[in-house]
Specification:
Blueprint: E1 10-11, H1 14-22, E2 27-32, H2 37-47, H3 50-58, E3 62-67, H4 73-81, E4 89-93, E5 103-105, H5 111-120
Parallel strand pairs: 1-3, 2-3
Antiparallel strand pairs: 2-4, 4-5
Length: about 120
């Protein structure tokens, strides 16, 4: 399974996304898997970095991880909803109402990509 090492991160569920958005928080979702090389690279080079973690904290953006290591059907269905058949997929949901679609981030992340996306939904 994927190591859940991010501070304050939680396992993903569509209900959790709705609850957090209802609390007025933006939500970043990392669809990942232990066997995904690109996922591991993004985690090590971007998402695990203290300056990137500080962006999540300072903007009160929730961080959820959808672990697809064992390819469960619920995560597969969510990937398909966003036009993907596999990981990585990074979604950023604006705070508030569910009628706003998430921002789909590129499969290769940088600090600037993450920071700009979070600022765009604040």
């Amino acid at each position: 399974a994927v190591e859940l090492t991010y501070p304050n991160m939680e396992p993903w569920s569509s209900e959790k996304v709705a609850d957090l958005r209802g609390e007025g928080r933006a939500v970043f979702v990392d669809f990942t898997a232990a066997w995904c090389v690109t996922c591991k690279l993004n985690k090590k080079m971007v998402l695990d970095k203290p300056d990137v973690q500080a962006i999540f904290k300072s903007t009160d953006t929730a961080f959820l991880v959808a672990d697809w290591t064992n390819k469960n059907d619920i995560i597969a269905a969510e990937l398909a909803r966003h036009g993907r058949s596999g990981v990585p997929l990074y979604l950023l949901f604006p705070a508030g109402h569910d009628d706003v679609s998430p921002v789909i981030l590129p499969q290769i992340l940088t600090k600037n990509i993450v920071e700009d996306a979070i600022q765009s939904v604040q």
